[in-house]
Structure formats: structure tokens, C-alpha cells
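Journal club side-thread
Mid-discussion, someone asked how the predicted structure for our own chain would compare to the paper's figures. Pasting it here so we can look after the session.
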Amino acid sequence: MMNIEKIVDFISSPKFYVPIIVVLSCYLLMNILSRAIKRMLITNTSKLEDKKRNTIVVLISSVLKYILILVGLCIILATYGVNVKGILAGLGIAGAIAGLAFQDMLKDIISGCNIIMDNYFIIGDLVQINDFIGYVIGLGLKNTKVRDFDGNILIISNREISHVINMSQKHASIPIMVDVAYEETEENVKKSLAKAMDRINKLPNIVKPCEYLGIESMNDSSVTYIFRVHAKPDSKFDMKRKALGIIKEQFDRDGIKIPYPQVEVHNGKKL
């Protein structure tokens, strides 16, 4: 009976139900605030603005999460008789010590804010960080997550991001170079490429007509022609592959020769 009474007393005491109420309240409050912020910031504007505001929502939500965790922890500690006021009073000294111990974390947070405010990139952008190319799938207070086309995920601290190439803020200008045999005249190649470019211009995600630029170089066994394809940033690689396929098909139709290595074999007799 004594054990049952102790259990009942514990269940009915603040030490049991206050932590549960605090955890549930923080969880519900976090969801409510996140939704409220999202409704205030994300409206039917341009796609770029929506993506930027969504990134800000993620960042603000991260800050609120840590604040709620801190407040909830203080309430729970106070319930168990811990002198929270003393702890808070000592935060000045502790803050200085923590500033030295967690200076890298503070650099990450400041860098994350700078990334948003200076519009380096936002969630959903196609970026190149060092040699890694992929889409930004997460931007938090400490790190940024980028996923490449093979599904690999780069997790990099915000403070380590110093040079970024953002491929999503403007349309992609894709140079297409094709090698043609010397036997083909420039006029015939230009006509065939014009037909190919007309077909490429009809592809989805093309933002403006292709530009023929002319001869890029004269090689040992071929002449290189170049033109540009203008496409949406996130379709850059797909459009390049499709453009090359169309050119190959059009050259085959028009009888334009594409040079390739050949080996001549002699039987040793005098020619």
C-alpha cells in the first residue's frame, strides 16, 4: 500500500505532470508559430520570392525551437527545485565562457544569417560549393545541406561557405560545341545547325532562342562549331543532352560528317 501511495503522490505532484505539460506545450507552440510565420511570409508572389521566404521560415523556426527548449528546460528545472534564477544570473559569466567554447557555432549562425540576408542562395537553388554541384535541401543555423544528382548529400558548416556559384538566379547559358569534318562547308553546317536549333527552341524549359556563334576552333581533323542554348537553371544538364541528341539526328539527316579516329592498315607491300 505504501508503494502505491508513493506512486499516486508522485503522479499527482508537479514533478510528474509539469514536465509532460511543458514538453507538449512547447511542441504545440512550435507548430503553431511555424505555421503562423509561414502564412505571414509565404504568399502568392514570384517563385524566387516564395523560395526565399520559405528559407527564412526554416531559419526562424530553428531559432524559435532553441528558445522554446531553453525556456522549457528552465521551467522543468524550477519544478524540481533547482535555483533557476541563480543559473540565469550566472549566464553572464557562462556566456563569456560559452562564447569562447562555441565560437565556431556562433560563426555558423552569423554566416547562416548572412547567406539569407545577402541572398547567396535559398532552399531549392542549384549551387556549386567547391567542386560539389547540387540542390540546396536544407539551410539551418549551423549547416547547409546540398544534394547532387546522384543523391549524395553534402553537409557543410555555414562558416566554411565562402565561395558559391548560384546557378538558379538567372537562366543557364549552355555552350554547345560540335566537331565537323573539314569536307563540310560552313554554309551546309550552318543550315543544318539552324534546323537543329529550331527544334531545340521548341523544347520545354528553353527561355530564349538559341544563338549561333560560328567557328570556335580548327583542329587537326575537324572544325569545331559553337552555339548557345538558353534554358532554365534546373534543366541545364537535361537540355544539353537533348540538344546534342537533336544535333546528331539532324546531322544524320543532312549527311553532315562527324569525324572520328580511323586506323589505316597496310600489308607491307609497296604501294
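Post-session note: Residues 172-254 form a domain with the Alpha-Beta Plaits fold (CATH 3.30.70.100).
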